[in-house]
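DM from R.C. (forwarded with permission)

"hey, sorry to bug you on a friday — could you get me a structure for this? deadline for the figure draft is monday and I only need the backbone to look sensible"
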Amino acid sequence: MSQLSIDVNRRSILAAAIASAAATVLSGCEGQGPKAFEAAAQTPPSSSNTAAISNARESAWKAISSGQGSGVSVAIMERGEFVLSDAMGVADRAQNRAVDRKTRFNIGSVSKMFATVAILLLVDEGKVQLDAPVVRYLPEFTMRDARFRDITLRMLLNHSSGLPGSTFFFAFEPDASMHRLLLETLKHSRLKHAPGAMSMYCNDGFTLAEMVVEQVTGRKFVAFLGERVFAPLGMTNTTTSLGESGGANVAEYYDATSGKKYPREVVPVYATGGFSSTAEDLCRFGDSLMAGGRNLLSPASLQELYRWQPAPFTSGLREGKWYGQIGWDYSTQIGSGNGSTDIQVFAKGGNSGFYSANLQILPAEKMVIAMITSGKASGDKLTEPILAGVLTDRRPGVPARSPAQPPIPQDIP
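My reply, with the result:
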């Protein structure tokens, strides 16, 4: 599961576990729009999704009843139609406001997939090349280590750049200094390894990718995504992190021990982990990445997104299935392991100080799974039972095998 490491001395707060809360499951249906992306959330589930839906609801309620989360949003989309969209738990205790399907949560590093698509859109337009050096587009980027000139855009997206790690901090107010802080920090830094040699989780690479998008397009990163990704896909409830964007319908964070309500969290590095969204919007986004969806990318870029392209060191690992593609945390097979009945899954997770999110895409099944929670529950762990349900529904009699996941890095998006 992808997470952001941060400088403890600059971190505003170390979040505690979320309080247990109970509320009513809310599901309903939106106004009608384009079929693939404005599908009714109450579409009757087909018999082929029974176990997946049941497991999704049980997993969400377990997070709440165990005290690991106070609110959860979960959705499953198949072939552009929602077969499940549920929201449960408490969004705001003082207002007695329950989580609904439009309640926004911070999504942490799932935001990295937005950045990956942004770069691929520019590739499609011939404005950037994945294997071109970053300095071609960002000449102000420099380091003490001369090898930085060999870092390519692809290396930013598959965590193989060798950059030191994470240059940002969490706050409760917006901070526009992150780009300047990163460039100044890198100016005095050295690489951890040769560019492209291995993949080690690196948030700074995505902040540089964000800066490349702004430099090449002449537009702010958030505005670019709004126009080119969110609006075309009908992602009306996706924007910057809760503490920056505000709004009434958001999931608040409460300390599990004291019950204290904390200010809304700001993640000031957008491409690295700075967006908020809903499970439905994440499904709309995920569906656009599969054949038959409302594709924003060219067929070549979609193929590039799923192509197995690990760094040399990673390719030699027996269980090295993480960071082998651009953007994703890992790809894996669920099933018996014999290949013939297995189902391939691509996953991107994200954790901020107060929230956890997970996006799972199953291209062969034309299925997207998204779950977000306010609290300390793991988005990856919460979606595992759903994948087991998919296997039960689609491959009866095949024993479930938990997907291999990368070791958890430090502590965030």
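R.C.: lifesaver. The beta strands are 69-78, 81-92, 97-98, 105-106, 239-240, 275-277, 330-334, 343-351, 355-362, 367-375.
me: no worries. Residues 1-46, 407-413 have pLDDT under 50 and may be disordered.
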